[in-house]
Amino acid sequence: MVQRKGKGSRREAPERAGKLRERAEEVVKRLEKLYPDARLELEYNNAFELLVEAILAAQESDKKVNQLRERLFNKYKSPQDIVNVPLDELERDISSINFYRRKAQLLKKCCEALVKEFGGDIPRTVEELTRLPGVGRKTANMVVGGAFGLPAIIVDRHVLRVSQRIGFTQEKDPDKVEEELRHIVPQEKWTEFSFLLLNHGKNVCIAKNPKCEECPICELCDSCKVKL
């Protein structure tokens, strides 16, 4: 004989989801006060620049990429410019960046696809962007949210770490974390939420020895080390 689950069991999942949504709204409210101008650390003027920088920033600091950007984009103003340049010349132009040879190849392939499939325009959807060589969901969401101002959950290492510590997710795969956060955070807040957690992860909720005593969301966090 099959036993029916009690009403409490049926309510548990939606009730937990509701509490997480309430917590997410409060997290955004508090972090907005701490980071009123939260944004990506990468500096850019348009979607093309951000796409290139996001590819260069893999396993490299945003600061290092920013130091290169002015010289780089004085020369390369469109995907076609990167398509036209010889590979060895592009490698020299980005040689200050980690794994520059591999990244030069990715940039060439990405820009070739942009010219061939999109006429040199930068797509505005994650689905289209991830069809480009070298572009995963994190990079695609950075462009969608950062350059176009559309709703996007950007899961970099900081957003992943802070989300886990707060208790929004137990997943380790960035794509699965993105999917869970989509159900917790209001869509109109996706991009801002990402920027806020990114900034918080860099400044307070750092990887080693997080500054819990300085954290305005400590009481909302499952991993807070400060006794409240």
TrEMBL record:
SMART domains, A to Z: ENDO3c
Binding site for [4Fe-4S] cluster: 205, 212, 215, 221
Any one GO biological process: base-excision repair, AP site formation
PROSITE patterns reported in the protein's UniProt record: ENDONUCLEASE_III_1, ENDONUCLEASE_III_2
Coiled-coil ranges from the UniProt annotation: 21-71
Chain ranges passing through the membrane: none
Catalytic reaction(s) noted: 2'-deoxyribonucleotide-(2'-deoxyribose 5'-phosphate)-2'-deoxyribonucleotide-DNA = a 3'-end 2'-deoxyribonucleotide-(2,3-dehydro-2,3-deoxyribose 5'-phosphate)-DNA + a 5'-end 5'-phospho-2'-deoxyribonucleoside-DNA + H(+)
MF terms (GO), sorted A to Z: 4 iron, 4 sulfur cluster binding; class I DNA-(apurinic or apyrimidinic site) endonuclease activity; DNA binding; DNA N-glycosylase activity; metal ion binding
Keywords: 4Fe-4S, Coiled coil, DNA damage, DNA repair, DNA-binding, Endonuclease, Glycosidase, Hydrolase, Iron, Iron-sulfur, Lyase, Metal-binding, Nuclease
Region described as Disordered: 1-21
Keyword DNA damage set for record: yes
UniProt keyword Transmembrane, yes or no: no
Biased composition (Basic and acidic residues): 9-21
CDD domains the UniProt entry points to: ENDO3c (cd00056)
Cofactor detail note: Binds 1 [4Fe-4S] cluster.
Cofactor: [4Fe-4S] cluster
Family recorded in the similarity comment: Belongs to the Nth/MutY family.
PANTHER family (UniProt xref): A/G-SPECIFIC ADENINE GLYCOSYLASE/ENDONUCLEASE III (PTHR10359), ENDONUCLEASE III (PTHR10359:SF18)
Entry function: DNA repair enzyme that has both DNA N-glycosylase activity and AP-lyase activity. The DNA N-glycosylase activity releases various damaged pyrimidines from DNA by cleaving the N-glycosidic bond, leaving an AP (apurinic/apyrimidinic) site. The AP-lyase activity cleaves the phosphodiester bond 3' to the AP site by a beta-elimination, leaving a 3'-terminal unsaturated sugar and a product with a terminal 5'-phosphate.
Protein name per its UniProtKB record: Endonuclease III
Name of the coding gene: nth
